Each structure stands twice: as structure tokens, then as C-alpha cells.
Recover the amino acids of this structure.
């Protein structure tokens, strides 16, 4: 198989996290660029590698090869040039509902595949762990990355109690971020309370954000405290908000301005 360094040249760092760094690399023979996640053997990279190699889906990053020397495992994967979903949320602020639904549709398709076809729970569904393959808004495809916390659905029940529905809750937090343009480390319980009670700090919003009742309904269900009350990935995909909004164009109206009233320090969205 040869060593990683015989076949590839390492270039700039793309990102780093708890498992080490991810660098851009180029295959010497073809000049094709990839991303390479280098994980120290002492951090036990085998679980992550195994899942990444086994999961094949349009919305999951594709592995091109893997290598090992006496210190590291190198996972060579498709290069996502479009940045993380986190970058986009920070850049764009609040999404309109059709755009948010299109993002959620891709995330939930990947999760449905993980839970129902592959029998695994991703376990770390943050916007840093979702990337766009290209830097082009129209055609960019969202890819799930980072399978460091992935576990079999059956094991996930004992590890995280919530089983695969932990991913649904994490996706609910992402839906909140997309709709309100705010990535926050508030707990899902706090976020749910903000959505149901409708109180938001004015300084967070340049203009009032109107969210449709259907979007709020899905959001609140996905962030239910009791995992049994959360929808499955398939049920999210079947929710009327996703089903209708993905077909709307971005200028479709959302929310109803009669739903919003202002009060002193806060903005109340009913
Ligand atoms: N395929 C990829 N293409 C481009 N950048 C990537 C790719 N995979 C990871 N990255 C970058 O590296 C960061 C860390 O990767 P990740 O797999 O999440 O590592 P960790 O397990 O350490 O969190 C990501 O947030 C992203 O910025
Ligand atoms: Mg990560």
C-alpha cells in the first residue's frame, strides 16, 4: 500500500479539533487535492475509521483511503472546499425558511441513513461537523464529517441514553441556529423555552424574525426533553414544514407579521 507520505504531500491546515489536525493534501500522481485527518494511534482512531469507511451517502464525507505508520492513522477524504455550516451561519445570519428547510433536509437524510440503514448514531451533530463540498451556494452539497463519537444504535442507548434521538436533538439545535441566526451553547431546554415563550433579547436581532408555526412545531418537538417524544429522522423528513418548504423559493413569505408584538426590552414572537 505504501506510506501516506510516498503518495501524498501535506499542504496547509484546514482545521483542528480534539482528535488532532485535518490538513489539505495532494496526491502526487494525480495532483488531486484531498483532506487528511491525522489521528494519533494512542487516541484509538479505529472506531472512527471503520465508520467513515462504511458509511456511503451523498451527504456524508467520502473516504478515499487510509494509511498508518508507527504513530498515526491518516484518513484521506474528499476535500470540502465550502467551509463548515458554522461559518455559513455566522456569515449569513438568520436563514429564510425555504433555505433552512433545504439545509435540514440534507442533514436529516444523512441521519436517516446512519440510523436506519447503517444502524449507527453520529453522536456529535454540531455545525462544525457539517461541511459544504464546494464554495458555491447553489450547488453546494452538505456533508456530515467527524465520526469520532459514532456508536452502534444499540450501544448508543447505553452511552448516551437517548440513542439515535440524540442526533435529532442536535439537529434541532441547528434548526434553531438557522432560523434565528444565532449559534449558541445554551441547552436545548433553554432554547425550547425561548421558542415557546417567544422572548428574545432585542440586541440579538437587527430586525424581528418571523417564524412560522409549522417551523416552531418541528423545532419544539425535536428539542423535547424526553427522547421518546422527539421525532425519528424519518418523521422529521415527513414533517409538513420540511415537505412543503423545500419546494418553496427563497422569497416565499414566512411567519405572519400579525404574529409579532413588541414590548419594552424584549421582542415577543407569539
Ligand atoms: N473533508 C474535509 N474537508 C475540509 N476541511 C475539513 C474536512 N474534514 C475536517 N475539516 C476541518 O477540520 C475540522 C476538524 O475536523 P473533525 O473531523 O471535526 O475533527 P475533530 O474530531 O478533531 O473535531 C473541521 O471542523 C473542519 O474545519
Ligand atoms: Mg469535529
Amino acid at each position: 500500500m505504501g506510506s501516506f507520505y510516498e503518495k501524498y504531500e501535506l499542504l496547509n491546515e484546514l482545521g483542528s479539533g480534539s482528535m488532532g489536525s485535518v490538513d489539505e493534501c495532494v496526491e502526487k500522481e494525480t495532483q488531486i487535492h484531498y483532506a487528511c485527518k491525522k489521528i494519533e494511534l494512542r487516541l484509538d482512531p479505529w472506531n472512527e475509521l471503520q465508520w467513515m469507511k462504511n458509511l456511503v451517502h451523498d451527504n456524508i464525507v467520502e473516504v478515499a483511503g487510509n494509511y498508518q505508520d508507527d504513530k498515526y492513522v491518516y484518513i484521506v477524504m474528499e476535500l470540502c472546499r465550502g467551509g463548515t455550516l458554522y461559518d455559513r451561519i455566522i456569515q449569513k445570519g438568520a436563514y429564510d425558511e425555504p433555505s433552512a428547510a433545504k439545509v435540514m433536509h440534507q442533514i436529516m437524510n444523512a441521519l436517516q441513513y446512519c440510523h436506519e440503514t447503517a444502524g449507527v448514531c453520529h453522536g456529535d451533530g454540531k455545525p462544525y461537523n457539517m461541511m459544504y463540498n464546494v464554495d458555491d451556494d447553489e450547488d453546494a452539497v452538505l456533508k456530515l464529517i467527524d465520526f469520532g463519537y459514532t456508536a452502534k444504535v444499540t450501544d448508543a442507548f447505553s452511552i448516551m441514553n437517548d440513542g439515535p434521538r440524540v442526533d435529532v436533538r442536535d439537529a434541532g439545535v441547528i434548526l434553531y441556529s438557522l432560523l434565528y441566526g444565532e449559534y449558541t451553547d445554551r441547552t436545548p431546554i433553554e432554547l425550547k423555552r425561548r421558542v415557546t415563550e417567544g422572548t428574545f433579547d432585542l440586541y440579538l436581532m437587527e430586525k424581528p424574525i418571523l417564524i412560522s408555526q409549522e417551523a416552531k412545531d418541528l423545532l419544539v418537538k425535536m428539542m423535547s426533553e424526553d427522547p421518546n417524544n422527539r421525532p425519528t429522522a424519518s418523521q422529521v423528513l415527513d414533517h409538513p414544514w420540511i415537505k412543503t418548504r423545500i419546494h418553496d423559493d427563497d422569497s416565499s413569505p414566512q411567519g405572519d407579521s400579525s404574529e409579532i408584538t413588541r414590548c419594552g426590552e424584549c421582542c415577543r414572537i407569539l
Observations:
- The longest strand covers residues 8-17.
- The radius of gyration is 20 Å.
- Residues 17, 128-129, 146 surround magnesium ion (ligand 2) (CB under 6 Å).
- The chain has a mean pLDDT of 87.
